[in-house]
Amino acid sequence: MFMDQWFPFFDVGKTLQEMDRALGHMGRPLSLRSVPRGTFPAINIYQQDDAIVLTAEVPGLQPEDLDLTVLNESVTLAGRRAETGRPPENRFYRRERPAGPFSRTVTLPDKVDPDSVKAEYRNGILAVHMTKAEEAKVRKIAIKS
Amino acid sequence: MAVEQKATGAQQSETTRHDGHAVYFQPATDIVETADAVLLKLDMPGVAKENVDLTVDKDMLTIVGKAEPEQGGDAVYRETNVGDYQRQFSLSTDLDPGNITATMNHGVLTVQIGKAERAKPRKIRIETAQ
Prior knowledge:
The complex is a heterodimer.
Chain A: H1 9-25, E1 42-47, E2 51-57, E3 67-71, E4 74-81, E5 91-95, E6 100-107, E7 118-122, E8 125-131
Antiparallel strand pairs in A: 1-2, 2-8, 3-4, 4-6, 7-8
Chain B: E1 3-5, H1 9-19, E2 24-25, E3 29-33, E4 37-43, E5 47-57, E6 60-67, E7 74-77, E8 84-91, E9 95-105, E10 108-115
Parallel strand pairs in B: 2-8
Antiparallel strand pairs in B: 1-8, 3-4, 4-10, 5-6, 6-8, 9-10
């Protein structure tokens, strides 16, 4: 069975995507909370007037195992997720959780101030709060009569 | 197979109506068998320890996790949906439903289900024939 062999997780993701498609045709789609399966971690980006918040779903890691870099408009999140215990002493029945090293870079909608970055890891979600760079902030211009 | 996932399309939609939530999502799960237990690991990011609910009804294990909604402003890019998690597993008779323990760690729920005494591997001592 393919579950017994080690795959880089994106291959498993591809297989699962195909399974999803096949099952979808049978009227029983497997729904996951994160949308493009195979992309790890899943990322959301929120915008406020003068700040940008990025959240990433990275369950099961220790904060010190996460590597976060912010440069101008790009954020890179890298790390490694441990695998569930390996055979031969353990036998797998199901293996859906992505494991192994990962790295993802996303582009933010605006430039941010690298000194303003605050990151918090809670319940498996990393939330990165960044203030927009001065030149990217919304400015209100007073109109003279 | 000791633990099997049950297809519960109809049941899930009923639960959904009850709770007033739009959708339940299936957490990605690893199932591993060790010598005296079966381990389930479920990814449930966004769920705090106190918001996990495990119930065993006869041979059916139901895991529900309520996720706190993310608050960050206007979403400009989304890869995850908003919603809670639910997944059901049917336990084989080789497992002991009275011996289930669970721990939650950084969004990963680990459920340990003990094997029934008769299903555990036994070492048989060989005695010399007289």
